[in-house]
Amino acid sequence: MNVGQKTRIxxxxxxxxxxxxRILAEGGLVAFPTETVYGLGADATNPAAIAxxxxxxxxxxxxxLIAHVGELAAARGIARFDAAAIALAEAFWPGPxxxxxxxxxxxxxxxxxxxxxxxxxxRIPAHPVARDILRVFGGPVVAPSANISGHVSPTTxxxxxxxxxxxxxxxxxxxxxxxxxxxxxxxxxDAPMLLRPGGLPRAEIERVLGRALVQPPADADSDQPLAxxxxxxxxxxxARVRLNAQRLEPGEALLAFGLGAISGIDAxxxxxxxxxxxxxxxxxxxxxxxxxxxxxxxxxTIAVMPIxxxxxxxxxxxxxxxxxxxxx
Length: 328
Ligand code: TXA
Ligand code: MG
What we know:
Helix content is 29%, strand content 17%. The protein has helices at 14-25, 47-57, 72-78, 83-92, 128-137, 157-164, 202-209, 280-296, 313-324; strands spanning 8-11, 30-33, 38-43, 66-68, 97-102, 119-123, 141-142, 170-173, 184-187, 193-196, 240-242, 253-256, 271-273, 301-304. The strands form 2 sheets. Strands 1-8-2-3-7-4-6-5-9-10 form a 10-stranded mixed β-sheet, sandwiched between helices. A 4-stranded parallel β-sheet has the order 11-14-12-13. The mean pLDDT is 92. The structure holds threonylcarbamoyladenylate and magnesium ion. Threonylcarbamoyladenylate (TXA) is lined by residues 34, 36-37, 39, 63-66, 98, 100, 114, 117, 119-121, 123, 125, 143-145, 182-183, 185, 195, 226-230.
């Protein structure tokens, strides 16, 4: 669609799913809930639709997209699975895991979506609305997070609306998402590599593989990274983000975790807590919504209390570090 046209918003229903599938088939753009974050979907085989998608997000076309499919059989038509990939797919799909794999010869995903790489990122989402749309549409759907490039990912339909209204055809509102951070991305190369920590904890993946995930090379945030979208400041609110805060400076907003004491809190203009009971799953689900809410208050600095780096804490800390880049 052309920028400035009306974006329809429909509550999730059979009629909304049918409308979404029809719009995708016509080359349009549909935002829909997955269990991780809301995605902005386009027909993965339609280069014109994918070009519109990059334009709507303001995303550089060298940053490839994840192809979402409904079934393992469809995934195997797109990519070549080695033994590790099959083990991970069987253990965690549908779910918050993306696999980067070599493309098959006849891979139907358009080159524009894979930025010309010979690999493709694939995932089978678990959210019932995403699954219904994939089933009714019947083909692969590329779906980056449904935000303007560089903003934090959307965890509600309202977040999608505030970023993309007037730029996309339809938003299917399935309520707030359950996980709240994007999928974990594993590159199934010679040794499986953690390209992005995310909604599936590293330890669960390593248990199935029976070995540690390899880390990407240290310069993987530079201009030719292995997960090209992991640009250093990718999840940036307008406010400066200060990590591991032990005390609050005057005027700083607080993003708290747990009920531990922190000095200066009485003078804070605004305080939000990721999880009063120090639950990392709850903190992940709240992370992007709280960052958006604090940012909308116009505060100069968001101070963030330390968050343990275990379970979903690894993904939370990764996103917070990216939000803090260039603003320290
Ligand atoms: O949870 C999620 O993964 C969400 C939902 C909507 O599924 N999607 C999402 O997409 O986070 P996006 O586009 O915001 O992030 C996809 C990441 C980017 O960092 C991109 O560079 C990387 O996947 N990626 C895609 N294809 C790749 C490939 N062939 N090799 C390496 N990285 C790839
Ligand atoms: Mg994104």
